[in-house]
Amino acid sequence: MVLPYAAVLFDCDGVLVDSERITNSVLRTMLHELGWFVSESDSLRLFVGRALRDETAVIFAHTGFEVTEEWLEEFRKRRNDALALDLLPIPGAVAAVREIDRSYRGMLACASGADRHKVELQLTKVGLIDVFEGRIFSGMETPRSKPAPDVYLAAAAALGVDPARCAVVEDTPTGVRAGVAAGATVFGYCPPDSPSHNTPQVLLDAGAAHIFTTMDELPSAVSGCL
User: Fold this and answer.
1) What is the pTM of this model?
2) What is the reported pLDDT for 224?
3) Is 122 exposed, middle or buried (0-12, 13-18, 19+ CB in 10 A)?
4) Nearest 5 degrees, angle CA 84-CA 63-CA 177?
5) How are strands ordered across the β-sheet holding 166-170?
6) Strand partners, 187
7) How many CB atoms lie within 10 A of CB 206?
8) Rounded to whole angstroms, what are the CA distances from 92 to 57, 101, 145, 154, 169?
């Protein structure tokens, strides 16, 4: 079978692992401690899909607190403890990734906006570290975070492929824009219970070429069998 792409590049949070509500709950608790009693829905809307280091002005505007590296480290520690305890894979993601890995003969990568420790912790927890080991890319290690394309460009370069010949799998407008800016074809994952309340139209407006709602659709989609 001739595959339509040279490689498939996956986001992590919300695509491979069901982490967004866990991480956001920890963040919301820490924001409450600063006096900002932000609701779950507003917190998800404001922070999901974005690097927290890029959102410090939002926190300052609501709390008057200048976010420090120590505060961010405390957030990461609490977050990692919660993820290690409660994290689950996105339903169907493990089987879908392994099927795609067989078709693409290892031409897969995980390109996340999160820090490397978090990504590796999560992939280990859900049993996917063996698929992506050596091909994990963190937006914290690139000059710019998503929606800039840097992390996807780094992943494509490491695989030795043209980013325009890559499929990117994303679930947020920020991530979709990053994939589009890299020149890739973006598949937008939009389950009915999207934690950030995205809709197919939101992802299409951001530039997604295809929308899918369950992970069992993805192997056929990236194999050109839409």
Assistant:
1) 0.89
2) 82
3) buried
4) 60
5) 136-138, 108-112, 7-10, 166-170, 185-189, 210-212
6) 169, 210
7) 21
8) 37, 14, 28, 27, 14
Name the nearest CA neighbour of 196 among 36, 23, 10.
23
Contacts of 102 (CB under 8 A, 6+ apart): none
CA Rg, the chain, in Å? 17
- Strand spans (E) along 20-147: 108-112, 136-138
In whole angstroms, give the CA distance from residue 183 to residue 155. 13
Under DSSP, is residue 182 helix (H, G, I), strand (E, B) or coil?
helix
E strand or H helix that includes residue 159: helix 150-159
**Residue range 89-112: mean pLDDT, rounded:** 97
CA–CA separation, 63 vs 33, rounded Å? 10
pLDDT, average across residues 91-100:
98
C-alpha 182/C-alpha 165 separation (Å) is: 10
pLDDT on residue 77: 95
Q: Are strands 7-10 and 166-170 parallel, antiparallel or unpaired?
A: parallel
Chain centre distance of CA 69: 23
Q: Length of the chain in residues, anyone?
A: 226
d(CA 172, CA 206): 9
pLDDT tens-digit profile of 38-87? 998 899 888 887 778 889 999 999 999 999 999 999 999 999 999 999 99
Is the C-alpha dihedral spanning 7, 8, 11, 13 positive or negative? negative
